[in-house]
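Standup notes, structure subgroup. Blocker cleared on the FE2/S2 (inorganic) cluster input:
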Amino acid sequence: MIQFEATVNGRPVRWDIPAGEFLTETLRSHGLIGTKRGCESGDCGACAVLLDGVEVNSCVLLAAQASGHDIVTIEGIGDARAPHPIQEAFVDAGAVQCGFCTPGMVVATHALLADNAAPTRDDARHALAGHLCRCTGYVKCLDAVELAAERTAAAKGGA
Amino acid sequence: MADETTANPWDTGDGSMPEYDRFNVVNKSPRRVDALKLALGKGTFTDDEVPAGMLHVKMLWSPHAHARIVSIDTSEAEKMPGVQCILHCNNVSRVPHTTAGQGFPEPSPWDALCFDDKVRFVGDRVCAVAAETEADALRAIATIKVEYEVLPAILTVEDAVAPGAVQIHEHPEPTGISKPEQNLACTLDASVGDVEAGFAASDLVIERTYRIGYAQQSPIEPHIAITWLDEDDRLTVRVATQVPFHSRRILAQVLEIPVARIRVIKPRIGGGFGVKQEVLVEDVPALVTLRTGRPARWCLTREEELVSARTRHPSKLTMKAGVMKDGTLQALSMEVLGNSGAYGAHALTVVSCTGGKALPLYKAPNYRFDARVAYTNLPVGGAFRGYGAPQGFYGVEILMDEIAHELGIDPIALREKNMIGSGDDNPLAVALGEGGEGFPQRIRSCGLPECITIGREAIGWERRGSFDKTGTKRRGIGMVALMQGSGIPGVDMASAFLKLNDDGSLNLLVGATDIGTGSDTILSQIAAEELGVQLEDIIIYSADTDLTPFDTGAYASSTTYISGQSVKKAAAGVKRQIIAAAAEIWKCEADELVAADKAVRHPDGRALSYGDICRSTLYHHNQHQIMDHASHMSYECPPPFAAHFCEVEVDVETGEIKVLDYVAAVDCGVAIHPTAAEGQTEGGVQMGLGYALTERYCFDEKGAMQNASFADYKIFSALDMPDMKAVLVPTYEPTGPFGAKSVSEIPINGPAPLLSNAIFDAIGVRFREAPITPEMIWRALRERG
Ligand code: FES
Ligand code: FES
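Run returned:
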C-alpha cells in the first residue's frame, strides 16, 4: 500500500491505495463512479479527469503520479443541485444516449472552454477527438459544445 | 386487462401524416428522462455498485484456433493467494445451449457449453479463475498448464464447406445444427416465381459477387455481470444485457436451477447494438457465486470484447438480376455464404434477414434466395444492429448501381421504377420470414419517395457527373435506398404495467430494455400522451425480472413499435379506470366525461384532478388501486424506409477517402422523440461508416486477431465523422403507437454500399469488398494505370 494525497474535487484526501494502481480505480473505489472504464488503454476517453486543469485519461495514469495534484472528476464539475452549464448543454442538445461516454466528454468540454471561450466546430471536433462514442455520431455532442460555449458567453456577458 | 387499442383519431387512413398539433407529448423532443443524471456521472451502470466481498473472474482463453484439450492442470493455481474458485470442462456440467439470447425455443443451434473439452477459435473459453482481486486471478491463470491436441484450423468459409474439411462441431450433444458434418450451422432457401425464366426473359442479366467482413458492435461499456445471493439465497444477476428475461431463462438452463431462483436486473446500459443480446458473461460469475456463496464480477476487457464477444457475420453474396432495357426488374437472386465463426448464434435468423429485409425493397416477379452459413475457427457472429440487413443491402444496393450503370439509367430513376411503395405487399414476406416462412405484410406507410426527393436536393444530385476528373482529388456522389422492419412479426412480445399515485403521477413498469436508445423516455412519452399527463408525471422503471413484466428485449427494432403499443394499451386502460372512478364519484355516465391535462372534466364545468381521483379510490370511495397492464404482439412488421446520399473526395495519389457530406433521410413514421430519432440515425451512420471504411479484423495465419484494441480496430471518432444531416420524413403508420415505426437499425444499412457507389462515381473503380481502405483504392488505381 502507498499513500495517495491529493485535492479531489476541491477536497483534500489522503487514501491508502495499492502500489501500481491506476487513477481510475482509485477514484472509482472511493465512490467517484462517474469516471468510466471503456478500454483501460488510453484509447476511448471514458475515464477522463482534469489534472491541474488539464484533461488526462485516468486509466493510464498511475495514481502515484497524480498524488500531490489537483484532480477534478465529473462529480466535481456539477451536481444535481447545481448542474454545470456544460452538463445542461449535453442534455439539451440531445447528446446523451447511453451516457457512458458523456462524463468524459463533459470533462473534455470543460477543458476546452477554459482555454477557448468561443470554439469553432473544428475546435470542438479536436477537443472530442479522443472520446469515442458509439451511439451519437458526435453531431449532437458537437452541438452541445457549441451550446455550452454560447450559454457561458451569454452568462458572462450578462454579468 | 386492457383490451385492444381504441381506434386512433390520428389515423388518416392512407399513411400520410395527421396534423402535428394534436400531439401534446409525443412527436416532441423533451429532455430525456435519464440524460441529466448521466451527464452528472450518476447513472448507475452495472459496475457502479459493487457488493461487499466480491470475487473477480478472469478467463484463460484459447491460444489455438482449433484444438482438443487433453488435460488441464490447475494444481498450482489452486494454491495461489486469493484464489477461490476455478472452473473448466472437467468440473462444470455439459449443458448444450445457445448464447444467442433469443425467444424460446431458440432458432439458433444449441452448440455451446459453458466449458468444452475443445476450443474452436483463438479466444474461446478454457478455464476461469475467481479470486479476491483481478490481479490474483491473472497470476493464478499464468500457472495453469493446459495440454492441447492442436487440430487443423479452418479460417475461410470456402475451406469450411470444402469436402473433407475437419469437423468443427463433432460432439454428439449439440442440437439444431443444420449439417454438422459439412460445418454448416444453417441453410435456408426461399423462392417466388421462377428466376431462371425471369433471367431468360430479360434484356440484361448481371451477376456480381460482393464480400463484406467482420465488424464489432463495440459498445463503450464492455460486457459485465455481477452476481450474488440475496438474503433468500436466490441468485441475483446485475448485467449489461438487452434481454433480461432471456438471460434469466438461459441461465436457469445452463445452471440447472429453476427460473424462480434467479433475478436478473438490468441497470443503465452503456450501449448494446446487439452484442448484449448475447448471454455471454452471466454464467461464469453465477457459477462462482453458487459454488462459493460469494458475489462475483466478470467484466470483459476491450481486447476480450473484440476477440471473444460477438461480431457481425462476414458474408459473401452472389447477386444476380435480370432487367429489361427500361430498367424493369424481372428476376432477382441472392446467394449467401456466411461465416458464423466458431458457434452458430443467430446464424439462421441473421442470414434470413440478409435476404428478407433487402430483396423486397425492389419488386420483381421472380426471386430466389439461397443461404448457407458455415462454421469456421474464427470469432463468433452474433446480433449486430441491422441484423443481416447491412450485408443484404450491401449486395442489393451496389447491384442496383451496377445495373443503372450498365443500362445508362440514372440510379435514382432505376430505383424509383422498381421500389416497393404504399399499398404494395412485401413479395417475399411469406416465403422468407425470420428464420423460415413468415406472415404476409402489406406496406401501409412509405415515405421513401420523399426521402429520395429530400436527399437528392440536399446533396445536389444534379452535380453528379459534372465534377472535374483530372486533378488529384476527385469528387463523386452516390445514393442508396433502404428499409428494415419493426420487431419480429409473430414473435416479439412486450408488456407494461401502470399504476396511479396519490398526486396523479404514475409508475410505469416495463420489461423493455433501455440500452441507451432512449426507450425509457419514448415509452414514458407514449404513456403520457395516452393518459393526458405530462412526461414528468411518469416514473418509469426498466427492467428487472422480479419487478417488471416480460419483454422479449431490446432487439429487432421492436421497442418503440411493440413495447410502445403495450404501454399505450395499458395507459388506455388506466385512463378508462380514471374516468370510470370519476363517473362513480359524480354518479354520472362515463361517456359524458373527458380526461385531459391530468384531470377529468364534466360538461357542467366540474373537474377532478387525477390526484383527487386516486386519493378517493385509495382511501374513500369504492377503494381500489387504479392500475392496468397490457401485452402486445404483432403479426405486422412495418418497415421504416430511408435514402442515404453522400459526396466523397478521393485522392488518387494516396487513396485517401474523405466523406464531404452525408444526408440520411428516414421515414420512421411519426417520430415519438424527433431528436432521439435523429440521434439514432446519426449514430447508425457513424457506425456504418466505420463498417464501410475502417473497421476490420486482421488475423494472423493461425487465426488470431491482430488488432484487438481501440487503437487498432478503428471506430469513427469526432474527427473522422463528416458533416451530416439527418432528415425525418413523417408518415403515419396505422399499426404503430401514435403512428410510429422503428428507427434504430435502418441507418446502418446505408454507408457500406453507399461508399462503393460514391467512390465509383468519383474514380470509376467499383469496389465489391468492404471495408474500402485507401490502400485498396491506391492499388486499384495503379492496376488500372
Ligand atoms: S478507459 Fe481510459 S481511455 Fe478508455
Ligand atoms: S452516448 Fe453511448 S457511447 Fe456515447
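Discussed briefly. Chain B touches chain A through 57 residues (CB under 8 Å).
Next: hand off to the docking folks.
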